[in-house]
Write the structure tokens for this entry.
Amino acid sequence: MRALLIAINSKYVHTALGLRYVGEYAKGQGFDVHLIEETINTPILAVLEKIMDYKAEVYAFSVHIWNKPFVYRLIAMLKKLRPEATVVVGGPEVAFDAERIFAELPAIDYIVQGEGEKVFAEFLASYGTGEVPAHVAYKSEGEVCLNGGVTVIEDLSLLPFPYPDLEAVVEAHKIVYYECTRGCPFNCSYCLSGISRSVRKRPLEMVLCDMDTFMAAQVPLVKFVDRTYNLDEKYFLPMMKYLAEADTNTTFHFEIKADILSEEVLVFLATVPRGRFQFEIGVQTTNPPTLKAINRQDNWERLAHNCQRLLGFKNMHLHLDLIAGLPYESLKEFRKSFDDVYSLKPDMLQLGFLKVLPGTQMNKETEDHGLRYMDEPPYEILATNYMPYEELQFLKRLESVFEQTYNTGNFANTLRYLIERNGKGAFAFYESLTNWWVMAGNYPQTHNAKGVAKILYDFILECFADEADMLIEILRYDVFVGIVGWKPEWLHWNTEVIFETVSDFWRDEEKVAQYIANYKFSSWRQIHKNYPIEFFRNDILTGEVREFYVMVENIGEEVTAKEIIL
């Protein structure tokens, strides 16, 4: 008996961690299981062809909010062509409400409820016997049998290493996902992760062995998907220290709760090699009534203090999240949450929108808060009693502008000065920028860094005419260090004016060695490509008129800028 696991990811760079665990566990039990991974962007008939080419008795699909319509269409076509095949589904989009799922798509035969490694293997073991193992829902004489409901894996040491094809994954430049814990002790009303309330840990020695495998394979990025990585300091801190001390270029990404970081952990994090760790921190809101309504007990003062400490170390990327459309948060309260988080100056601030997932407490409170949301995945909020559609739609536009400006990191100095000159706070500035951006016809299309630079240039000329010269000089600096090698004429470069001065500098190897360690002349072409120099007349820190030169060191993945004296 053969089984095919089908993972439909949202992007090519993603890997299907859940089905990988399911497949490797089943193989370890002696079953003939094969996994294929495709994306929602692949033509559906091409995916169907690949599925049909694999002659299996059981076809198992993992269903998520990003792939549900695509997977449902696949299943319907598969059943038309191969009606005798058995279709099994699992995953967070189908595991918690079997009756609804069977009603939505009768072509589904079985539903794995909960964490599926052991359950799916037991299903394969009983296949053809007429018996259905616990935690697999099915239909019997028109009735849905829940058969034990949702289950979890209590012992994570049973889970196999999920990347037998690790070398191919690395070569394909795909993200490697990993989990050392499952479950969540919290009960956020919009999330399904805390339903079991139990947090289970993979033995530390097994985790470290898995990390050694990743580092030996030179995986660029390992993203831990644990809902709250830093719950147990006795567990996660030894792991972090091991990774910090390793001789590796691998970066490790963790989702943490920043307000529970201890002083010992903070002191340690200050010593971590630059780029070794990334942190994602879900703030969601700073509005106390909203925090209470969604069952979050964050200490904002402590969270802000710890984030400022982390950012001050300058050795790791910090990604903070906000959610729009939550209960008791109007645009006024959201504005404050935005300004609170923006004031920390995180490396990235993601503006997300509430998704009212089936089976969550938030879903049950729909009428209480007047939640109006999409009936189909991703179940995104459209309006609430506190924020009408027009305001949420404006925040969608603002989010697009914000992603293309602040979150790229390319225009940090320009934005800082524009916010200061606007004088009404960060949200008020991005509000005005968004309104202008839309009126200028730049929305909803997405622009690359060069396109955004020109948009900001036009915005400055139109909206900050009195200070345009200084602000455009700051923008020119951001373009020089952020979009290396691009010099649009409208930013008025000094390349020709300073040519002789720069050439004399490069001929003086003793002077050059003050700025570039182990400098040796190669060729003029390489010099101008790897170490461009430009002349500026406005200080990026003070905005005051001051003539100075900047060299960009464009070697490898990291670009650094330094002021030099010619």
